[in-house]
Amino acid sequence: MTLRSYGVRVHSTPPFNAPAARRLREALGMAPGHVAYGLQAQYGLRVTADTVVAWERGLLAPDSRELTALAGVLWCSPGELLGTPQSLREHRMARAMGVDELARRVGMDPSSYRRMEDGNRWRGNGRQTAALAEALSLTPRELLTATGRDGELAELLRSAATTRWQAYVRPVARMLPLPGRQLEDALQRLHSDYHARMAATSSWGASAGSGESGKDFLDRIVEHFWALTPG
């Protein structure tokens, strides 16, 4: 979402939690002016009290640097000022982790990681993907959303359900750091459940054959897979 702050267009990367910002400020007995002063005195940010109020009302949102500084002034973690993280950047900021630190933990050059984060497109290998999930404490589903690979997984799962599931164990494993046996069991059950339901009710089968807007069909396949994959 693109917003305006100080007359300049900025991109609000984190999903800012405006009510939380106000609640935390009030709990410290601070007025918006106190927050503005802290942002300037401690972090060199020229933020007015009116801007702080606008943040708390959801009219504006702080950019990444401002959010980190605001967390410092309010004596909280950046994650406490965020809604539900979606992107890699949002998950990283929620854990108050810098690009260099995360890149090191993932085993990647910082500039390469930053390009992926900026493009919201993860291209790490299987080992790096597993390290990323561990570093950011991501569930398999959060990992897929954060790395922008939901659509790719959906296509793989459709093929696994409708053709030979064994051929898709490795491709899916490269995207999801799941135990091998757990992944194999989930794909096998997905395949079995799909064909059993197709034979019994023709609901899934009719969808696949009649072109039930591929999206609805894929959504059902994906949701069933996650139901078979605890956590």
UniProtKB/TrEMBL annotation:
GO terms for MF = DNA binding
Ranges for domain HTH cro/C1-type come to 88-143
The protein, known as: Transcriptional regulator, contains XRE-family HTH domain
